[in-house]
Amino acid sequence: MKKVMIIGAVRAGKSTLIKALFGESEPSTKTQSLIYRDWIIDTPGEYSENPLYYRSLIATSHETAAVVLVQDATRNRNYFPPGFEQGFPMLTLGVVTKIDHPKADIDRAISLLRQSLPEGEIFLTSAASTEGIQKLKERLMEIVKD
Fold it and tell me: Which InterPro entries does the entry mention (predicted)?
């Protein structure tokens, strides 16, 4: 079974999103290195924030069926460079996290994500309420089973 690699800034909600996809509710811990878990690869936020790590992300992506770019709805900045998804030779999806947070701005998050992912699916999620989690999981499972 192929895997899906999750990429996003530090504290964007990647590990919490992964726990929600697996139906787990305990708090997440800081990801320090690439973590392979079942059909997902969790990446440290520093990998998307520092261009020195892009080569590692691109190399790791060759083990995957898809790459997921995560944008935190509470942030007013995109941590991916413009057109970032073009560096990956496979399907790239977007996920906006924390959509139910009081400081969330979903439209801004989508707009920021579109700078790096001009086309392709974007899923809106909340690990806290589980909104959007099942729909995202179903789509990811379709991808990894193909």
Answer: EutP_PduV (IPR012381), P-loop_NTPase (IPR027417)
